[in-house]
Design goal:
- The protein is of the alpha+beta class.
- It is built from 16 helices and six strands.
- The strands form two sheets. It has a four-stranded antiparallel beta sheet, sandwiched between helices.
- α1 packs across α2, α6 crosses α8 and α15 packs antiparallel against α16.
- The longest helix is centred in the N-terminal third of the chain and has 44 residues.
- The N terminus is likely disordered.
Length: about 375
């Protein structure tokens, strides 16, 4: 039995090594293609480029491409902001990396908030939803449009009056913008995350997805302003359990029901929501699947507290997700419940409690923060 187990582990390690090797080869090929493309484009567009383009020059251009890509993240989000404002949206929050600027009670505030899989995000409060419609196309396409516009300006700025290195930067910056526009404009998912193009296409094809997108934006705006999940007008927010709950927008909208019940400590109803989404989990984006499992672990901890169930749910994937989203308040709630109900470590549980309370003061979604504080106080009362 031991030999079979060791053999399985070795086989699994070989598969992982092979997969890692393929990823490295793929990354190398992508870099090589980018380098060749930049070299050819640079030689074509830069007027003061020497005839013999060397490796050093190409390397500098590739470096400019990656710097340009980083710069195009806030440019992309600014596009959503500008086109949103032009179509009646109101500013809610703007994030680049972990730096988040949000508006509450008419004042702009700063917070640190990470969202795995995204480099930035611009969230706005949409206009009213009337007769199954609201302006969404320009808001969604705004990021791509801004990347393209700025890239064209960069290409037009290339001239003999600019130094060769300045021109190389403009080339790398412009191509990075074109790359960003294409990636975000194509109707597809990247690591489960829907692109702007995917949102545009699915919202036009499916009225439920269109409704769910509006729900997410409106709920986020209300939560940022301090509305509690239990106080949201949840009835019109509800989707049918028969809808495609694997769609990222539908999943987010449907999970509003979970927080609505959780905020009232109606744990049985909250668990029912998780049961209803479970058949769709295999097709969900990893972020949503892991977040649902986080809540399943929490409800198990405060309920039956079965170690076997918790161990099955709390696998390596979930551990990595919890680490990546450590600055989300529900992870402190999870840690608090785990340390007490599983390990009976009151000191560790209270440490997580203090971290949660401290985090609540600067959490962008104030309504959600108030819910988490309430649940933390309830958990604190369980510790003895």
């Amino acid at each position: 039995m031991k030999k079979e187990s060791e053999g399985a582990i070795l086989e699994e390690n070989k598969k992982k090594a092979k997969k890692s090797g393929l990823k490295n080869v793929g990354f190398f090929l992508i870099c090589a293609v980018i380098g060749m493309t930049l070299g050819i484009v640079s030689a074509t567009l830069v007027p003061n480029m020497p005839a013999d383009v060397g490796f050093y020059t190409i390397a500098i251009t590739v470096f400019c491409f990656f710097i340009g890509y980083l710069l195009h993240v806030p440019i992309h989000e600014a596009g959503h902001l500008v086109f949103g404002l032009l179509t009646g949206y109101e500013f809610v929050s703007f994030r680049v990396g972990s730096l988040t600027i949000y508006k509450k009670d008419g004042r702009y505030k700063k917070a640190n908030f990470t969202f795995p899989g995204t480099g930035g995000q611009c969230l706005m409060n949409p206009p009213e939803y009337n007769d199954g419609k609201f302006p969404s196309f320009l808001y969604n396409i705004g990021g791509v449009a801004m990347n393209l516009a700025v890239s064209v300006l960069a290409l037009l700025a290339i001239s003999e009056t600019v130094s060769m290195w300045g021109n190389l930067f403009l080339v790398g910056f412009a191509l990075a913008g074109l790359f960003t526009a294409v990636v975000n404009g194509m109707p597809r998912k990247i690591n489960g995350f829907p692109t702007d193009g995917y949102n545009i296409v699915t919202m036009r094809e499916d009225e439920v997805v269109n409704w769910a997108f509006w729900i997410q934006l409106r709920a986020n705006a209300l939560l940022t302003q301090g509305e509690r999940p239990k106080d949201l007008p949840v009835e019109p927010f509800l989707l049918d359990a028969q809808d495609d709950l694997a769609n990222p927008m539908n999943t987010s909208a449907y999970m509003l029901r979970y927080n609505h019940y959780l905020d009232q400590k109606e744990f049985d109803k909250a668990a029912q929501v998780l049961t209803e989404v479970t058949p769709f989990m295999d097709k969900m984006m990893p972020l949503h699947r892991n977040e649902i499992n986080v809540e399943k672990v929490f409800l198990e901890l405060i309920g039956d507290n079965d170690p076997a169930v918790i161990q099955e749910l709390y696998n390596e994937e979930l551990i990595q997700h919890v680490q990546a989203t450590h600055n989300w308040m529900n992870k402190k709630r999870l840690a608090m419940a785990y340390e007490w109900f599983q390990r009976r470590d009151a000191d560790k549980a209270m440490e997580s409690y203090r971290e949660l309370v401290d985090m609540a003061e600067r959490y962008p979604l104030q309504g959600e923060a108030d819910m988490e504080r309430m649940l933390a106080e309830w958990l604190k009362d369980q510790i003895h």
